[in-house]
Amino acid sequence: MEQVAREPSAASANSSSTTGKRLDADDVTVAYVGGGSRQWVPDLVQDLALSAFDGTVRLYDVDIESAARNAEFGNWVQDRDATTADWEYTATDDLAAALDGADVVLLSTQYNPTETFVHDLDIPKEHGIYGAVAATIGPGGIFRAMRTIPLYREFAAAVRENCPDAWVFNFTNPVHFVTRALYDEFPDINAFGMCHEVLHGRDRLAKLATEHLGMDADRSDVSVNVKGINHFTWIDEAYCRGVDLWPLIDELAHGEEGNRTFSPAELEDESPFTDPWQVSWELYREFDLLPFAGDRHIVEYATWFLQGGKEELNRWGVKRTGSDFRAKHWTPSESEQTTDVEAWLSGETEFELEASGEVLLDVLEALSGGGKFVTNVNVPNRGQVEGIERGAVVETNALVGANEIRPLSAGGFPRPVRSLLRTHVDTIETVVEAARTGDLDHAFRGFLLDPQVRTLQTEEARELFAELAAAEEEYLDDWNLDEAEVLAKADAY
């Protein structure tokens, strides 16, 4: 199990923790909702094969063929020589059967990107909003939330009915909207939003400590006091094996490392996941805290960097994830991001069993009594973040132990950063409120709060909202479109 070197001095165990069933490492039942996943399931299969657990994985998906393919892959991996665990995979399109008595529930779903994600990116762009990702906030991220929240309310209700004490881990974006919706439907759910952006940040700090302090460090050596909301987290403390990294962070932010610029030509052949941290360094210089998610996500919350379109965004080393890239996600053989398990199964591509670098198995090991573990999680605010309303989903470190996940108190923020965060929290809370009754007009109020949308006149914001609703109407059937004034007033619907 990965161990964090130390807990930051500002962090302490919060009095409110989540407790649930203790896992039996010899017999774990995992229900995977979204079991046809092109990315997360293949990674999980390999992590489970190399774990200290045995059990059963039920892969649930309305696309039963994709779930069956992943089940075949999972059972195929069990025959590899390097496998250390014993797992059996089955596929089902019956949600209740998948969840019945499950110990662990994993959530990762996505609609066909050619019918959804592509519109999230392209339609706002026509209105001058040059979003970098459109996955978690901004007009595209809000619509992704609107088509996802109703489904996740159904999942939460099904968990309440079939496995109320299960540990539930959500990997679906937008993590804060979705995790909040789970709790809104089932307040006693043991749900946690999981994200690897903070892990990548710790990887980056370990690399910097190695390059500049000669420490030969890796992620497990780095501890940070992380706080904020998903994809807009910040740190105010960082240590590597007990060495304070803040002087190095300050030096790099004000030196050559933190003041580089890029041209569109320089980024032309780069992956959209390239990240030289220039946005992070700039925000550190302005606010004395370091953002701790990828710059491609941060710019969607700190929207100054989106102004001026491609050239200005690229200047900071951020490359937009285009709709053509997203469209390929549905076809693994064409995608740079997803996994083509059929190529492994057929022998077309050589398979090598390797861990994903995610921390889910470390969390499960700690829950089963295998020691303490600290990692970042997204849960409702019960006091772990000061200055953000209680109940809103926030991201901090949490201490995981036998039968317990306890968020760690992370403190608050200077007023300017707190103001930035509160705006997005208000957007999230407004949309979640609207989803309870399918009130599209109330959702539009949350849409208007978004800083990207605020670059538009209200009339144009209404047209943008209506265009997105028209393009994705098939996926918004839980919303009351027929009686929505915002659509009736718009020419685009």
From TrEMBL:
Cofactor(s) required, per the database record: NAD(+); Mn(2+)
Highest taxon in the source lineage: Archaea
The keyword NAD is assigned to this record: yes
Ranges for region Disordered: 1-21
Residue ranges annotated for the Glycosyl hydrolase family 4 C-terminal domain, each copy included: 226-453
GO BP terms in the entry: carbohydrate metabolic process
The UniProt record lists the keyword Metal-binding: yes
Xref: SUPFAM superfamilies: LDH C-terminal domain-like, NAD(P)-binding Rossmann-fold domains
GO molecular function terms listed in the Swiss-Prot or TrEMBL record: hydrolase activity, hydrolyzing O-glycosyl compounds; metal ion binding; oxidoreductase activity, acting on the CH-OH group of donors, NAD or NADP as acceptor
InterPro entries: GH4_Enzyme_sf, Glyco_hydro_4, Glyco_hydro_4_C, Lactate_DH/Glyco_Ohase_4_C, NAD(P)-bd_dom_sf
Keywords from the UniProt entry: Carbohydrate metabolism, Glycosidase, Hydrolase, Manganese, Metal-binding, NAD
TM ranges: none
Family to which the UniProt record says this protein belongs: Belongs to the glycosyl hydrolase 4 family.
PANTHER family: 6-PHOSPHO-BETA-GLUCOSIDASE-RELATED, ALPHA-GALACTURONIDASE
Protein name: Alpha-galactosidase
Species whose genome carries this gene: Halopelagius longus
